[in-house]
Amino acid sequence: MTFHNADSAPRRAEATPRPELSAEILAFAQEMQRELDANSRKGEPGSWKYVDPDILWNDLMYHAAKMIYAMKHGEGERVDEFAADVANMAMMTRDAWHHRHPKATREGG
User: What's the pLDDT band for 109 if we cut at 50, 70, 90?
Assistant: First the structure.
């Protein structure tokens, strides 16, 4: 795996807007929502914006490790659950970072 310095990483190409989401994205988003609902006891919706992004990043890595373990052991249902957890943690980390850096643009500025 190669990591890039954010300053030297190539910018994302502008995507052509689509009027609807693909079936794959919708299905995955629904899995993400199920996981958020299942974990709602952990805090108010959106409260992650007030958490240190580094803490959320550590949680993302923890969930990624659980996903890798499930993949290596053929635990398909757990792979799905942990993939949604990883995606949710990525979303939360992004939201918390932008909450702390309000002048930064969503385009990476």
Answer: very low
